[in-house]
Amino acid sequence: MLDGLIANYGEAVAVLLFAIGFANLLLQKNLIKKIIGLNFMDTGTYLFLAEKGYIAGRMAPIVVDGVQDVNRYINPIPSGLVLTGIVVSVSVTALMLSLTIRLYQRYHTLNMDEISTILKKEEI
Amino acid sequence: MEIIRNFPCFSLVLSMCASIISSALNGKWARRLNIFVISAIGVMSACTLYFTFVTNQCYIYKMGRFSAPWGNEIRFGNLEAVMALFFSVIMLLSILGGRKHLFVEVDPFKENLYYVLINLLISSLLALIYTNDLFTAYVFVEINTISACGLIMIRENGHTLEAATRYMLMSLIGSGLLLFGLCILYDITGHLLMSNIKEQVLILAQTGQYHIPLVVAIIFMGVGLAIKSALFPFHSWLPDSYGYSTASSAAILSSLVSKGYIFLLIKIFYRVIGFEIIDESRLFNVLFVFGLCGMIFGSLSAIRENDIRRMIAFSSVAQIGYIYMGFGLSTETGMIASIFHIFSHAATKSMLFIAAVGLTDASGKSKKFIDLTGAGYRNVIAGATFTVGSLSMVGVPLFSGFISKILFAQASVSVGVNKMLPTLIVLAISTILNAIYFMKTVVRIYTPVKSDYPKIPWKQDVSYAVVCICFIICNVVLGMCSEPIVDLIRSGLAMFA
Amino acid sequence: MRESVSLLLAILFPVLAGTALLVVRKKDDRKKMLAYVGVVLGITGALVINALTTKETEIVLFELMEHVPIVLKLDGFGKLFLAIVSIIWILAGCFSFTYMKHEKNEKRYFGFYLVTFGILVGLGCAGNLITMYAFYEFMTLVSFPLVIHNQSKEAVMAGLKYLFYSFFGAYMALFGLFFLCRYTTTLTFTAGGTLNMELAAGHETLLLVAACLMLVGFGVKAGMFPLHAWLPTAHPVAPAPASAALSGIIVKAGVLAIVRVVFYLFGADFIRGTWVQYLFLTLALITVFMGSMLAYREKVLKKRLAYSTVSQLSYILFGIALLNPVGLTGSMLHMIAHAFIKCALFLCAGAIIFQTGITNVDDLKGIGKKMPLTIWCFTIVSLGLIGIPPTGGFISKWYLATGALDSGIGGFQYAGPIILLISALLTAGYLLPVTIKGFFPGDDFDYDKLEKCEPGKWMTVPLVILAVLSVVIGMFPNGLLSYIQAIAAGLM
Hints:
Mean pLDDT of chain C: 84
Number of strands of chain C: 2
Structural class of chain C: mainly alpha
Largest interface: A-B, 38 and 29 residues
Oligomer: heterotrimer
Distance between the termini of chain B: 25 Å
Strand order of the largest sheet of chain C: 1-2
Radius of gyration of chain C: 22 Å
Order of helices and strands of chain C: HHEEHHHHHHHHHHHHHHHHHH
Helix content of chain C: over 70%
Strand content of chain B: under 5%
Low-confidence stretches of chain C: none
Number of helices of chain B: 22
Largest sheet of chain C: 2 strands, antiparallel
Number of helices of chain C: 20
Number of strands of chain B: 2
Order of helices and strands of chain B: HHEEHHHHHHHHHHHHHHHHHHHH
Distance between the termini of chain C: 31 Å
Strand order of the largest sheet of chain B: 1-2
Helix content of chain B: over 70%
Shape of chain B: globular
């Protein structure tokens, strides 16, 4: 069990990060902390992907010095996925932050529960 | 004939381009462009359906230069085509039905942005329907979420902002889980294309290798998508976002957005993992239990509700429960029933939202039941539409809801007693609960009362009346000629795997 | 071809005519509207008679789902039902011409009245379970506006109660339908049942549960214990002609459905001797007794009549539950007799309300002196309901009792007739006081204040016709009896 963890320490850290992020996203009341949790979660996933794509001792899949041998390079697809994923998570984070700003301007609090209580009183 | 094979790709590209162009247009032209694009997508989907129906096999369309294990693919058969056609029709009707409200509730300078979002939404829905690549699906899931969030908060007030935030938070949890599950799956199979993953998964299942990661991946993806499609108990964002956003948004969100995720989930069941392996993982049992709970609690909350829009929104929770219950039966007939219910619910729920808007208009914009008294006389067409929708929800024969109930029940009779009895009992209870709150509303809107609010003759908004009639026709067609549609779903599912 | 056209016409014509009345917006010209309604009722009557003369053929309209077609098929029992429906509907319609004067929204009332007529014709013609279920649900929906007609809070609540009980019952029946789909050769009604015995073997318990659910579910409409409570709530709030129609016909729809399920789908042999039959018999007997008791204690006339309906309907159900030809003959006879009688009783109650506004039984002293013709009719049909020869009620009860004695089911063989007898006495106890007090108000009655207030002829003529009919079927029952016996024999 422990050997497995040590051998795959990268993945273990990734899962840990994911779990921390997930818990934060679920349990924190503060919106900013929730967003931080979200980013933790995404980062965990990307770390996991990158770790899976990495093969020890090989280099990035960019052809330099005319080396064409496939065995010299790591798998490029996970890196590509990570890049795409980062773009997605950046846009999502931006959207979340802008929402948070709007809410803060309106209600002067970052606590979701407080906002809900205020809203219950407010009628449209 | 040959050119039709390109249509799914065309419709994707068309809607994406339209959303970019719309951002530079003014509101009026953006609207025209949008309506044109959706109609065009509808026509193209109809052609695609014709094509797949005639050739009776699914077609794989290569995106870009690379072929199978590396490249990106579109894959379509009967089910995908009919889904796309249906989604575009409902989308068009919802937009036309809520048109008048957009002018009032959305800032005129932002009107073109609304259409940007709509175009994005339809493109992401189409991508979810057509794509054969799991990671592409993930990206479009996020695009779908973002555009849906935009649709909620484009009518700016405290409620929609809060609802949008809640919606985003829930969705992000869901998509985080989906992404992680997807990564694990990629990790153990080494592929991203659905068909290739399935080959590897079959081998893994036979050898028994990586059993735990496979189950974890299945559960992560299943639960993630279930959260995103507002399965009970993850529905807290739903009533606010449907209840306070502008009418078209509510109709589209309730009928289409969650259905896109559900469609992706079906795809994962059939094309990515394979039905038997999912069945072994017991995911269906989990979905079954939550589906049943949703059916009951959604309806109970709807009964307590004092706001017509929120009531319809809670009823959505119950209906989503029906769909997941159908999955939970873990048979093909159950799946067919669920897919039929996707159609039936999409048609009915958008209809109810549009009708509810007509009723609230005739009651001084108030959504409270007390003010709605007699609204059925003041806005005749909306009243009739709402009544038809309610009857369909309650499950009166000749309307679509009845057919899906029969399909569910037939499916449940063929499984073991320990799933059959709960299904039938909960179906019964939920029907009664549906009857309670929908019939209560119908009686209220037809209770005559001396009212200060003026009558709204149908001539005042002809397009609204036409939309309402289209919705009614759509519902009755689903309810009376369900056989070809069920056949189509069955053949589509056969092509699916 | 001729069959399908005539059946469809008889169903669609009143539905369309009623819808037209509801939709078309015109100045309230009462006379024109009444003329229109009268003409429509007349034409529909003619169309139904035309439909009655057709041969029994199966007409497939379209397929609702795979293996689930919508089928019309008018057989002997359906014809019987149709005949009662049209007689009652036309007579009660004539009665409402005057009665509805003192209610608002007449147009809506008559519109839904006509639509309901069409739906009921459809119910009689329905050829398979799904079709019947569809018409059954529609019947609930379109009769709902009749119940809540005056739209007071009380009426709406009563209407909703009616609606929910009906939906609940219908859904229980649907429940059974789902099971039946799997174990029958066809859902088309066929005398003797359509169970596929090979498939059903080993699943008897399941099927019996399904049968039980369907019986209880459709029994809701027929006011069977334990789901009878909607009836005494809904009847009194509806306008009198509507409650007459409800009590005369709509509740019979439940009976029709039960007969269809028991004899045309499951088959009498499948149910005979099982716990379902005993349960059914027990429930029917409990309802007979309980209904009479409650009616006896009730003071509001229309409510009393409603409880009486609960009790009388279960006479019919009891006859069905005996599952022998004699009992079934009695049931069908009682169905006819009760339709005429109860319709007449409610119309009398309506006439009293219309002329004097009295709803309570205790206030009816001397009413016979004020409106003698009405109370005479009331008396005659009361005697019919109690079962005194030579009225229709006597013959039907005679057959019911004989059927019970013949059945040889231990316990019920004797308990049945005894309870029927007790209930008949109670019936006398709750109906005759009206007559007695009405005609013999006692010495302290002030004859000077008495003024004649006999209702107009649109009200009295239907009453007289109904009273005469209820006596005629008792005096000359042979033709009808042989027709019914032929049906009953064909079903066993």
